[in-house]
Design brief:
Helices cover 71% and strands 0% of the residues. The chain has 238 residues and is an all-alpha fold. The longest helix has 34 residues. The chain is globular, with a radius of gyration of 20 Å. The N and C termini lie close together (11 Å). The N terminus and C terminus are likely disordered.
Length: 238
């Protein structure tokens, strides 16, 4: 890969303002809804529960999209139909939007009078009494997502090697969110939800195998030194 086409992850992506707007609006809306519940203006309604369910499912799909986009970027598969900077921009956008919806998903439950999640139970794993393990899966997934988003802004300080290793946590975040949604979500018994969960998981597994095979081929080329542009080929698998 030529120097001119190399990804500069230190640069601010063109969609940063859109990302900030999405996350800001999401959290502001969540705060408004929480305030209505805390003041009793929406007493007796189940809207908070339905909002949490809906935004939780959207957050999962956005996280899946972020992981999928990252795999397309790292394997080079997506470069045939989209430029690498655009792939990176979409990857960052999906990560930030997913984190915003995930925060809304948890915070909005503070306004629900039936489940009654205090702030401590929302932000701290095992901080509540309702299905603590399965809830913790989702909470840890959110914290890992926020850590990965922050890593984009400190990459120049921690170095590219550590940054790439840190990004393996995105797989853990996805599978924790998958288990959280599949085992705890109220849609788990519906056929359409099962299809969505199984399809998204299958895509991630398939692209992960492609990623592993691409890395193995790159290492074989480097060890064998059989191609004049082996170093450039290896960069595609990083």
């Amino acid at each position: 890969m030529s120097r001119s086409t190399a990804l500069d992850t230190n640069a601010i992506a063109p969609g940063s303002l859109v990302v900030s707007a999405v996350v800001g609006i999401t959290l502001a809306t969540g705060g408004f809804v929480i305030g209505m519940g805390a003041t009793g203006l929406a007493a007796g309604t189940t809207s908070f529960w339905y909002l949490s369910r809906g935004t939780g499912f959207v957050a999962y799909l956005l996280l899946w999209g972020s992981v999928t986009w990252g795999l397309l970027l790292s394997t080079g598969t997506g470069r045939a139909w989209m430029r690498p900077p655009q792939l990176l921009d979409a990857h960052q956008f999906l990560s930030a939007a997913g984190a915003g919806f995930a925060c809304f998903h948890g915070l909005v439950l503070m306004g629900d009078r039936y489940v009654s999640f205090p702030l401590r139970a929302v932000i701290l794993p095992f901080g509540g009494s309702y299905e603590p393990l399965l809830v913790a899966f989702g909470q840890i997934a959110v914290w890992l997502s926020l850590l990965l988003i922050a890593s984009f802004h400190v990459r120049r300080h921690i170095g590219g090697r550590l940054w790439r290793r840190l990004h393996y946590a995105s797989f853990m975040a996805f599978w924790l969110a998958f288990a959280h949604g599949l085992l705890l979500g109220t849609e788990q018994t519906t056929a359409w939800a099962l299809v969505v969960y199984m399809t998204t998981a299958s895509v991630v597994i398939f692209l992960t195998f492609c990623r592993v095979l691409a890395t193995a081929r790159a290492q074989a080329v480097l060890v064998g030194d059989t191609a004049p542009n082996s170093a450039a080929y290896a960069l595609r698998a990083v």
